[in-house]
Amino acid sequence: MQSALDQFYISIQRVRDLISLHNSIKAQATAALDISDILRSALVLSVSALDYYVHEVVILGMLEIHRGIRPEPTVNRNAIASNFSKFKVSLGSAREDRKIAIDIAAWIENEIHNNYGNDFLEQPHHISNLKPIIANLLLEQLNNNLWLENELRKDFSKLSFQTPDNIADAIRYISNQRLWDEVANKMGKTAKDIKQQLNSIVYRRNKIAHEADIDPTLGLGNRWPIDEVMVGDAVDFIEQIVDSIHQILYSI
Questions:
Q1: What is the value of pTM for the model shown?
Q2: Residues 137, 116: contact at Cβ < 8 Å?
Q3: Which percentage of the chain shows pLDDT scores above 70?
C-alpha cells in the first residue's frame, strides 16, 4: 500500500507547485490580472489527490487481504461477515480461478511442465519434494489476481471518497478501526472538528467544480473569494489526514 501514499505525495507536490506558480505571477503582475483560478485548480486537485489515495489504498489493501499478507477485518458484533467478505465479484471475472479448481491436477501438471520441463515430470518424486513446488505454484497463482484488481477498480470507479463518511465507508473494507477517532488522536483535534473542516474543503471544491465558484448574491461573473493562505491551509490539512490514515492502516 506504500505506492498509494507515494502517489499521493507526488500529486500533492504538484498542487504546491501550482500555489507557488500563483504566488510568483502575483508578485510580478498588476492587480488587474486575475489569476485566482490557479488557486481554484490547486484546491480541486488537492481533494482529487485525497480521493485517489483512498481508492488506491483500499484496492491494494483488499488485494493484500486476498493474498493472505494482511489480516481481514474482524467481524463486528452485529454483523455476520466483514465488509471485505461481503464484496461481490462476477462469476465471469472469477472464471479462470474456477477452471483451475475444477481440474487442479491438470493445472499442476501443466505448470510443473512449464517451469521444470518434461524430464522432471517423467522422474519419480517423493511427495515431500513436491509439496514446496506445488505450494509455490499455488501462491504465484493467488498473487496473479489481475481479474480481482480489475473487478475492484471497476466497482470503486463509480464511487467518490472525499467526505468523511464516504472515506470511513471505504476504509472499512480493510480495517474496522474507528477511523476518525484514530485520526483525531494523531492530529490532536476532535473527530468532529476534523470532519467539519474536511467537509468545508470538499464543499468549496464542489462549488468550484460544479458551480464555477460563482457567488449568486453578487453581480454577473463574480466568484467566491479565494487566496493562497486558505488553499495552502487546506492542502496541509489534507496531507495531515492522509498521513494519519496511512499510519493507522499500517499499525494493524
A1: 0.83
A2: no
A3: 93
